[in-house]
Each structure stands twice: as structure tokens, then as C-alpha cells.
Design a protein that fits this description.
Number of strands: 21
Radius of gyration: 26 Å
Distance between the termini: 55 Å
Largest sheet: 10 strands, mixed
Length: 503
């Protein structure tokens, strides 16, 4: 198939390509001997980069129609437009003068999972290119932007050379690239991002930037990435990077140091990718699915559900949304439901086409009606959860009056507790001003999901307890409009729990 979505096709307007090249010349003072645009599209950057007066230019593009347009538009003997797939093509071998290479462009802004769902062949060779382990290697953590893949491949190809990489991308991609530079011990003299308004340039609502990386053959690796904007190209807005070995979104912001390893395990909610069948609403003791059909199945399979948009109160215990949970753990056989839960099995089987249409590879080879994000932890009676999406964190105690375990969807994260009291104390601690300030420092609020499992795992309850008094917890209750419930006995009990879990 073809189309804008498949190719992540946001063609760079000529005026903005020119603005980028002028910035590189006037503010970075680069004088490239060769220019490469690895996904050149209609050739805006190749054409604008002629202002560098380099000796040779190479544009690589998979779309043959675009290649013909480029050749007609750019009449210069130094320019070579090559109809090829970036994923199987090496540009470095073409360059004769490698004294200073500029790699510039706007790679596709689309993820590998999106392309897979579209049935696209415009994909890199399937591989776990970040070396992820376990479930992360087959689920959401391994989903990556094609743009990120391309930039990292270019860095790997051109490392230890005097090469400048200047790529338009999401700021989340730029941050990932910086972390990969550090993780893989690749030498670089600078790594900066220059923000621009993607809604004006591309008509899309996403935080975007030009990523500027100066590779080098010297043993240099910086801990900080400077953030500028095209409106104020000489003024550093902030710096993100590593401080005392930990990754932070604003290094110079001072907060209490709660960074460490969480003694409790953070979990992600259930994933089913079949909401019309699996998610139910209840009205007048009747369950309706997403198709507005009445659902009559065994209630043992139905659990209260909290989605990201529902995290608006510090205590959630009344529910109108529910979810069918088919397994106790991932990849557990589901055939027993045919005999033990015949109504549920018939309902699921009658809707099997919707399950079979799920595109994610995690369901490949799994039992019928499988889910992910399920385990013994899913059935914990008391949870403290958070939405991954909201910019301002709010942690909530989740429990049901009928003692049924409360589920969350896979955009949420939670801790498990055996009692309401311990869940309540944890919720107060996490909602204190000091902890919120710390989280805002280490999370990236412009990301689609600022609060991820990796961010939350850095919360050290031992350090929090050493810093936060019972009076601060009482103040937090007032801030959350809760009736006072906390007391020194509960706080002491939580401290004992924290110490025992840590051991």
C-alpha cells in the first residue's frame, strides 16, 4: 500500500527547510563537504542546502515519483537522487570527501507498530534493535518511531567521523536518541535540540524539534542536552540529561532527591485491543458493550475498570465502567472457559472476528481472546494508581465496595496493597507537593505519556519517608479535600511495611 500515513509523509515546506539550513550556517557555522538527505521526499532540504556550496549532495528516496520530481526541480551536477530504500542502503560509501558530512532531513514520523497495522512493507528488518529483554521486547516498550530507528542507524554508520546530523523529529525521539548515544558510549561533541511549532509547519499537534548531533572521533560524551528554539536560537531554555547518573528533564531545577529504586513493584493495566467487546458500561443493573448490545454473561468474569480519564479523585470506589478479564496470567489457555463460563465463551466466540482483527504481534500464537497486562497482581483488592497521560500527577486509591479487584487499562500504572490503610498512606505520600515536584523534574511533560513505568520505578519510598512528616501528610489530606484519616500509627505501620519489602 501507499499513502501519507504509511510513509510518515510530512513534507517539509521549502521556507522551513531554508530556515533550518540558514540556522546551521549562521549559528552553527558549519561548512560541509558533503550533504546527505536519507529520506529526501520532494527534496526541500537538498535544494535549501545548496547554500552550503558543498562538493557533493545525495538524496535517497523510496518513492520513485518523488525522485523524478526532485530531479526535475534540482538542476545541479553535484546532486545525485537515488531511488532506494533507506533500510537496505548505505550512503557513506558514496561520499568521496568525508572531511565534514552533513546529514539533514525529516525522516518519517510514524511508529513501526502503526506500519505493521497498515500492512506496510516500508519497514526496517524486524529486530530488537535496542536489546530489550523479556516482555518489553514484544510489547509496547519495543514500539519505536521509524524516525528514531533511522537516526540511530545513521549515528551507528557515521560514528567516529566528523559528521553533523540535523534531523526534524518529535522531541521524544530526540531525547531517546540522546539516551542511546550515552547508553552505547558513542562519542559526540554536542547534542542539542531546537524547538519549533509543528502545528504551524506541519499542521500536527506534537512537540517537535530539530535534533543537532555533532559526532566526533575524539573521546567526548556530554551529560547534558541544551534546548533552544528557532525564535530564540542563542538562548538556552533548559537542559536535560544525566545528573548523578539519573536522567532528568531539567537538570537545574532543584527538588528533594527521591531518586532511587521503588521498593514496591509498579504494574501496567490490562491490554486487550477489543474495547467494543471487552469493555462494558452498567446502567440499571444491565451491562452494555461498545456496540450498545446487552451482555448477559457470568459476572465472575466482569471487573470494575478505571481508565486514564477517570483519575480525577484521590479515592475511586464507585464505577460505571467494567471489563471482561479472560485470564489470570498472560498466554494462559482460555479453552476452560468453554465449560466453566459457557455464556462468556459464547459471547466472545460470537465476536471472534473482532479479536482476529487485532493487528498487534503480541496476540500472534496466543490462545483465543487473550489479554496482556494480567497476572496475580491484577487481582489485588487494593491498588494505588495513576494515569500515564496527565501532565499534573494524581495518585488514587482504587478499591470496590463489593471487594472485587479493580482493573485499569494499559495507559495506567499501579501498586498493589493488602489493606486500604497501607494503600491510603502510599497515596498520600505520592500526592505530597515534594513528590509531585520531584516527578515533574524527572518526567517530560510534553511527552504523550509523561508518567511511565520507568519514571515511577525511580520513586524511592525510603527517601520519601525520611523527608516527609505526618504533618505534611495531614496537609496533603486537606489539599485533596479528604476527611482526616492519617495518624502516626498508620504512618509507622507503613514505614515498617516499606522496610520489610525493601529487605
Amino acid at each position: 500500500m501507499s499513502g501519507k500515513r504509511e510513509y510518515g509523509d510530512y513534507q517539509t515546506p521549502a521556507y522551513f527547510a531554508k530556515k533550518v539550513c540558514q540556522y546551521l550556517r549562521d549559528y552553527r557555522h558549519i561548512e560541509p563537504s558533503a550533504v546527505v538527505e536519507p529520506t529526501c521526499g520532494l527534496g526541500s532540504f537538498i535544494q535549501s542546502s545548496l547554500l552550503f556550496d558543498a562538493k557533493e549532495y545525495y538524496g535517497i528516496e523510496i518513492n520513485s515519483e518523488y525522485c523524478e520530481i526532485c530531479k526535475e526541480k534540482i538542476s545541479d551536477d553535484r546532486v545525485s537522487i537515488i531511488n532506494s530504500d533507506f533500510f537496505t542502503f548505505s550512503s557513506k560509501s558514496l561520499i568521496r570527501d568525508q572531511s565534514q558530512i552533513l546529514i539533514i532531513g525529516n525522516p518519517p514520523w510514524v511508529t513501526n507498530s502503526t506500519l505493521s497495522m497498515l500492512g506496510s512493507e516500508n519497514l526496517p528488518i524486524k529486530k530488537n534493535f535496542k536489546g530489550l529483554r523479556g516482555i518489553d521486547a514484544i510489547t509496547g516498550t519495543s514500539n519505536f518511531d521509524i524516525c528514531e530507528y533511522i537516526i540511530l542507524q545513521l549515528i551507528n554508520e557515521y560514528k567516529d567521523t566528523n559528521t553533523i546530523i540535523a534531523m526534524l523529529c518529535k522531541t521524544s525521539v530526540a531525547r531517546n536518541v540522546f539516551q542511546e548515544l550515552k547508553r552505547n558510549n558513542i562519542s559526540f561533541a554536542s547534542c542539542d535540540i531546537i524547538l519549533f511549532d509543528a502545528s504551524k509547519v506541519f499542521g500536527i499537534n506534537v512537540s517537535a524539534c530539530m535534533l543537532y548531533v555533532q559526532l566526533t572521533n575524539k573521546d567526548i560524551s556530554l551529560d547534558r542536552c541544551n534546548v533552544y528554539s528557532f525564535e530564540n536560537p542563542t538562548i538556552i531554555q533548559c537542559q536535560f540529561g544525566f545528573s548523578n547518573g539519573q536522567f532528568c528533564n531539567n537538570i537545574d531545577t532543584k527538588t528533594d532527591n527521591f531518586d532511587g529504586q521503588c521498593c514496591f513493584e509498579w504494574h501496567q493495566g490490562v491490554k486487550h485491543d477489543c474495547s467494543k467487546v471487552m469493555e462494558l458500561t452498567q446502567a440499571n443493573d444491565v451491562f452494555l458493550n461498545g456496540k450498545k448490545e446487552m451482555v448477559e454473561i457470568e459476572t465472575d468474569m466482569i471487573f470494575p475498570l478505571v481508565k486514564s480519564s477517570m483519575f480525577k479523585m484521590p479515592i475511586l470506589h464507585h464505577f460505571s465502567k467494567f471489563v471482561i478479564v479472560t485470564q489470570r496470567k498472560a498466554r494462559e489457555d482460555t479453552k476452560h472457559l468453554m465449560y466453566e463460563m459457557p455464556k462468556t465463551w459464547k459471547y466472545l466466540y460470537d465476536n471472534r472476528e473482532l479479536f482476529e482483527c487485532r493487528k498487534s504481534s503480541i496476540y500472534r500464537g496466543a490462545p483465543p481472546f487473550s489479554m496482556f497486562g494480567v497476572g496475580d497482581y491484577s487481582y489485588s483488592q487494593y491498588k494505588v494508581g495513576i494515569s500515564g497521560f496527565y501532565k499534573k500527577p494524581l495518585f488514587s486509591v482504587l478499591y470496590s465496595e463489593d471487594r472485587r479487584p479493580v482493573m485499569t487499562d494499559d495507559t495506567c500504572y499501579f501498586l498493589c496493597f493488602d489493606s486500604f490503610d497501607m494503600a491510603y498512606v502510599a497515596m498520600l505520600l505520592l500526592n505530597t507537593t515534594k513528590v509531585h515536584n520531584f516527578l515533574i523534574r524527572i518526567a517530560f511533560l510534553d511527552a504523550k505519556r509523561p508518567y511511565t513505568k520507568k519514571v515511577l520505578e525511580r520513586i524511592d519510598f525510603g527517601k520519601i519517608i525520611d523527608c516527609i512528616s505526618i504533618d505534611e501528610l495531614k496537609q496533603t489530606e486537606q489539599k485533596l479535600h479528604l476527611t482526616q484519616y492519617i495518624n502516626i500509627s498508620l504512618y509507622d505501620e507503613f514505614q515498617s511495611l516499606q522496610r520489610s519489602v525493601k529487605l
